[in-house]
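I am writing to request your help with a piece of structural work I have in hand. I set the record out below, with my sincere thanks for your time.
___
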Amino acid sequence: MVSVNTVYQTVLALANKEQRGYITPQEFNLYADHAQSMIFEQYFYDLNQFKRVPGNSTEHSDMLKNLEEKINIFNKYRRVASLSSNTLGHSGVYASFDDMYRLGAVEIDYNGGENFVKVEQINISEKALYENSPLTKPTETRPIFIQYQDFNGGIRVFPNPQSSAKLVVSHIRKPVKPNWTYIVVNDKPLYDHSAADRQDFELHPSDKTELVVKILQLAGITLKDTALLQAATAEEVKSIQQEKR
């Protein structure tokens, strides 16, 4: 976790330097959510890039380990208690979770016990090929599933399970939106740590500097402050260069 108040105060201190402009709490929360999403999505691009690097030097291994550690914060393993309550109006189609970012493994026990088998994911275009071949035809010991984008990422399992079956899904969830909460005293917003809807950043603590830089970049674009944008970009380049050493 990264303190939302620490980031906001740092952003204010840098943005207000030399009277460059004030970022309201509402603006900060918008920038903060966008910055967190950008950094979060970059995890996966970087992970893919480093996995393609030939060899397995200590440096590359450490980078992969660091990225996987950051992503693991968002790993979830959930059991769908009742399949019938999760249908989306189509037999065997089950709703995805609202916070799902990327689907992982799917396991099922058709008898409602604890003997789960892994469900193989296929593309919808492959369904007929699988079902028409005796070797690949889905069975309860060798099930398959399709993920439907038009059902909000919901999945359909074959053969179609009964409501008594148990389904387990692992996935990477989206980070919760950060929210700097406040009360107004003498026309000034003061941080309210006790607010029920206060939300810190969910990113790894090592991403604090990058959060500040990206929020400043977004503030610089909105405020049309070229100097602020250039200063923030320079800090980001410096940070990236240091990470690659």
In short: Strands lie at 75-80, 93-94, 100-109, 117-118, 120-121, 144-148, 154-158, 166-173, 182-185, 188-191. The CA atoms of residues 220 and 226 lie 6 Å apart. Residues 25-52 form the longest helix (28 residues).
